[in-house]
Amino acid sequence: MSRKRRAAWIQTAAVVVGFAPLAALAFAALGDRLGANPIEKITHETGEWALRWLLLCLAVTPARRWLGWSWAAPLRRTFGLIAFAYATAHLSTWVVLDWFFDLEAMLEDVVERRYITAGMAAYLALVPLAVTSTRGMIRRLGQRWLTLHKLVYVAATLAVVHFLWLVKADLLEPLVYAGVLAALIALRLARPGRAAAAADGR
Hints:
The protein is an all-alpha fold. It has helices spanning 3-30, 38-67, 75-98, 103-112, 114-131, 135-141, 143-148, 151-166, 172-190, 194-199.
């Protein structure tokens, strides 16, 4: 199998695996199998999957550097876009099912509840990354694209803070995500030759 064809298969597999949980959630919703609080279930699932794929996106660079997985480089954008899709589903659940487009109530919620503030900030940080993820935008922005896409670390940090502030009792799960994020950032900074990595935007 040629390298180009293998890369296409890997990308296809990543997309299928990436959206499988969302498809499963949709089928469960259609079959009325989301439990006593379906809105909470959808919100929780889409939010966690957004964070998981965002962390996987950040894991691509350490995998390339420490494991020599150069073939994984294109997956960074794919994982990031999957994370954005889940984040959009997460936000849409809040907008449509929680508040039914009540703008005044949503703004009040953003101001009054700090975990909502952090979550909204995380999403807003992801928007320019998704918009500029095309090859055309990469060429158009040049060096500015590299600077802009460092926002992914801001978005991931805010997403973890959003989860930490949301949880009221058992902090173990959000702390695990926080630990994974801290490890990924440490690996990103620890490897020599950071200039070379910065040159390709990773």
